[in-house]
Each structure stands twice: as structure tokens, then as C-alpha cells.
Design brief:
The structure is a single chain. This protein has about 375 residues and is an all-alpha fold. It is built from 15 helices and 2 strands. It is globular. The C terminus is likely disordered.
Length: about 375
């Protein structure tokens, strides 16, 4: 690790600790979270939220598993799940989720996945994510438009469709950009050239020519895989469906915490209200450079969810949600992922010493992965 990287890591730790301390001060000083509200939460309730969160990770891994199964048998479900845990850990411990793709790429590297299969799987999965996200947000937008559901926040009545419209617009732009840049080669070259020059001036890349060559190859692969998926879309209906379910599950963890703590009966209307509030808060936490939204997610929860959760229980639900879905999960991933990487690295070293074929370059893969990364919320 270079001196610059160490200083950046230390700065991130200090900023995260400071933000978390300020959040704790605000939440306790305003009596939102108290010793009594924390004491009301049982171990079984923490466990229930944790299980629901892991269920979401299982669904995400299943999507990758079904996609990889269309062209290789080198990514069984176990590897897909560990790959998902690696990416989730990278997202949880770095600003802007910047280590999501690099840590996944490093896991695949240590697990012996060939570069060609890793790239193909990554591109196919991104296409499935984009198509499904567009479809889910479109359905939600239309449904909420007809339902006319609204929430009152700080005295202002906000239609729920307006919140979903933000996510729909984002995913529409992402999908359109992928399609246009993949199939309109002249425009692709112009955009990449302008972007390459900017990155070179910012000293993010060393060679504009190498960058352009790598990106043109990447979009050529996108063009090939998009054409294949559209021609054989029946093969990808299952992963698309599972990803749609994953989107609903991952956006309903707060609602799960509310049900678990209060014991209220399930309500589809309440679930979608919580889901849209989850989207609204995610738009903010995703742009704040704090790992895992530490501190900011808690404060935003107390503000945003106050429209659906009464004051007497909002502190308990907040703590239950964050501890069960983030802090416990992150600690366990921080134990499991490094252990798996260490074991795989030893196996990989043994394969390398035997003269076997080297797998993907994690550094190159992470660079490409970061640039196509999109938010799942």
C-alpha cells in the first residue's frame, strides 16, 4: 500500500468515525434513540432482520448463478454467493461503493475463474440488471400513477410516483446509454475520446490510446452479448424475475424491521410506501462519500420514515434495521471474505506453480467494472 493510499484510508476512517459520532449525538440528544428503545429489541428480532437481509444476498447470487449457467459451469452457486458477499463487503466499507467491483474481481481471480468467462458473466449480468430495473421501475411508476398514493413530509404532500420517477429516469438513461454507445460506433468513439482526454488531464489514466482500445473492446463485447440476450431472451427470463424479486426484497428491509418489531400484519400498500421511502433516502446516501452511509443513513431514516413510523417506536426500528442489515452483515463478511480469499490465494498459488493458465487480471477487471457500475436502488 502506497503512502497516498494509507493517507486516504486514514482520512476515510476519521471522516466515517466523525460522521457516526455526530449521528449518535443527534439521535440520542433528540431522544429518537434511547437506552430504553434499544433495550426493547430482542435477539430474535435482530436475527429475523439479518436473515431477511441474507435472503436478499442469496437472491442476488442466484441471478448471477442463472446467468453464468447459460455459458459455463465454472461458477456454481457457492462461488456466486461468495462473489456476492465480496462485492457487498466492498460496497459497505468504501465511499461510493467503490470497492464493489474490484473486490468481486479479486475473488474471481483467486477462485480461478478465467478472464473470458468473468468478462462475459459481468457483461451479461449488467444487461440483465439494467433491463430488469427499467421494467420494475416502469411497472411501479404506472401503478403508483393510477393509485394516486401520496405521503405528507414536513407538511408537503408528495406523490409516490414522483419518487419512483427519479429511479425510472436514472435506469432509463443507463439502459439507453448502454444500447446507444454499444451499437452506434461513431458516437461511441467520440464520447470515449472526450472522456479519455478528460481522464488523462485528471491523471486517472496513463495512456489515452490504451484506454480507448480497452473501452472499444468492452463495448464490442456489450454489443455481442446484448444481441445474444435479445435473441435468446427466454433463457434470461428466470434471472430477470429473480432480480426483480431481489429489488423488492432489498428495498423492503426497513419494512421488515417495522413488521418484526411491531408485530403488525403485512400490507402491500404499506410495503410500497416503505419501498419508495427507501428509494428516496438511497438517492441521498449514495452521493454522500461515507462508507455504507454510516451515520447519514441513520439520520435520514429518522427524518424520512417519520411519516410512516410513529415517534414511540421509530428509534427501535432504526436500530433494529441498521444493526440487523448492515453492521452484523458487514462484520461477518469482514471475517468470511478475507478468509476465503486467503484460502483461494493459496490454491491459486499452487495452480500457478504447476504452470496452469493464469486467470483474470483483477486490476484491469476492476477498472472496467467500476465504469459500468450502476446503482441497484
Amino acid at each position: 500500500m502506497t503512502v497516498k493510499s494509507k493517507n486516504k484510508l486514514i482520512a476515510n476512517i476519521i471522516i466515517t468515525a466523525a460522521v457516526f459520532a455526530l449521528a449518535v449525538f443527534y439521535l440520542t440528544r433528540s431522544k429518537i434513540v434511547t437506552a430504553e428503545s434499544v433495550a426493547k429489541i430482542s435477539f430474535l428480532q435482530y436475527f429475523a432482520v439479518f436473515v431477511f437481509t441474507v435472503f436478499g444476498l442469496v437472491l442476488y447470487a442466484l441471478v448471477d448463478f442463472f446467468v453464468y449457467r447459460t455459458f459455463t459451469r465454472e461458477m456454481p452457486f457457492g462461488k456466486c454467493f461468495l462473489n456476492t458477499l465480496s462485492g457487498n463487503l466492498g460496497s459497505n466499507v468504501t465511499p461510493y461503493k467503490s470497492a464493489h467491483f474490484p473486490l468481486m474481481a479479486y475473488y474471481r481471480y483467486t477462485a480461478g475463474i478465467k478472464a473470458s468467462e468473468a468478462v462475459t458473466g459481468l457483461i451479461k449480468c449488467q444487461i440483465v440488471y439494467s433491463i430488469t430495473s427499467f421494467a420494475v421501475y416502469l411497472v411501479l411508476l404506472v401503478a403508483l400513477l393510477f393509485a394516486g398514493s401520496r405521503i405528507v413530509f414536513e407538511g408537503v404532500s408528495v406523490p409516490l410516483w414522483a419518487v419512483v420517477a427519479v429511479g425510472f429516469t436514472f435506469h432509463s438513461v443507463v439502459l439507453a446509454a448502454i444500447l446507444v454507445l454499444s451499437f452506434c460506433v461513431p458516437l461511441q468513439k467520440r464520447v470515449l475520446k472526450l472522456w479519455g482526454r478528460l481522464l488523462l488531464k485528471l491523471k486517472k489514466i496513463d495512456s489515452e490510446e490504451e484506454y480507448l482500445a480497452r473501452k472499444e473492446e468492452w463495448f464490442a463485447a456489450y454489443r455481442t452479448e446484448i444481441s445474444y440476450i435479445l435473441k435468446n431472451f427466454a433463457k434470461y427470463l428466470l434471472p430477470c424475475f429473480v432480480y426483480a424479486v431481489f429489488m423488492l426484497v432489498s428495498g423492503s428491509v426497513q419494512y421488515c424491521a417495522w413488521l418484526v418489531f411491531t408485530g403488525n400484519a403485512f400490507s402491500a400498500g404499506d410495503m410500497f410506501a416503505f419501498y419508495t421511502l427507501c428509494l428516496a433516502s438511497a438517492y441521498v446516501t449514495n452521493i454522500v462519500p461515507v462508507p455504507g452511509g454510516v451515520g447519514t443513513a441513520e439520520v435520514l431514516f429518522s427524518l424520512v420514515y417519520s411519516v410512516v413510523i410513529p415517534d414511540p417506536v421509530i428509534g427501535s426500528v432504526l436500530v433494529l434495521w441498521r444493526v440487523g442489515s448492515y453492521y452484523i452483515v458487514t462484520v461477518l463478511e469482514a471475517i468470511i471474505v478475507p478468509t476465503v480469499l486467503f484460502v483461494n490465494r493459496r490454491k491459486y498459488g499452487e495452480r500457478a506453480s504447476d504452470g496452469s493458465e493464469k486467470t483474470e487480471n483483477p486490476e484491469a477487471m476492476s477498472q472496467d467494472g467500476e465504469e459500468i457500475k450502476e446503482k441497484d436502488e
